[in-house]
Amino acid sequence: MNINEAWDCGRTSLAQASVDPQLDARLLLEFVLEVNHSFLIAHADQQLTDAQWQQYRHLIERAQHKEPIPYLTKTAAFFGLDFHVSPAVLIPRPETEQLVELALAWAKGKTGLLVCDVGTGSGCVAVSLAFHLPQAIVKAVDISAEALSLARKNAARHTPHRIQFYQGNLLEPLPVQVDLIVANLPYIARHEWTLVDDAVKWYEPTIALEGGASGLDLISEMLKQSSSRLRPQGAIFLEIGWRQGLAVQQLAQRCFPAADITVVADYAGHDRIVSIYT
Fold first, then answer.
1. Is pLDDT of 189 > 90?
2. Model's pTM, two decimal places?
């Protein structure tokens, strides 16, 4: 079985299970062979060893059962960087890059910033901010020790010695006030759980997805905590569910009555981020 034949076999096997079987089969093959896309094209006739073929077949079978490709390859791209991922953390989503974009735009030209990423998971947001704000002090919090271990690994890879990590509930372990808070907290309402894609429900951590009866339990709690953790003239950027803009805006207004609070739509026109400027 050569590379081209293996790729074609993988693509055919994933035809019913994948949105993009061509890409998913390619990513799994690259992972098994430890090569990049260019290598696959240039060495299409190269034979796989028996061990490589068996490993590839095994991964294809797991992917057929909706196991996410990033968990199989143990890596996911986010904001131009590659991150280690595992079932202990959410897979970084492209829409969360907008959260980083807004935070960077607000931070542009400011010096001496203290930044906190709440519910850091893989650390993709905290690391991206530290990478692009070299003068900022970045802190990251998560309740999961396993998630923090992975986030530390990603930070050591991309931004060594730049991020301070804390374990605990939302902002409770944060020892100081900060200028900027960013968070992608669980926001799926309990009644919406049956509508969630099977690959997400079966494999990604429920603790990082479900936000209580309304989906807003943790967001509401964090906003209350942030009223004493945010410095004057600070900002908060929260990723939210696609129909939660007004509700989160109202929650934020109660905690920050004088703040400028807006709902930012994603590129599909859905509610995506609530921005709070104090």
1. yes
2. 0.94
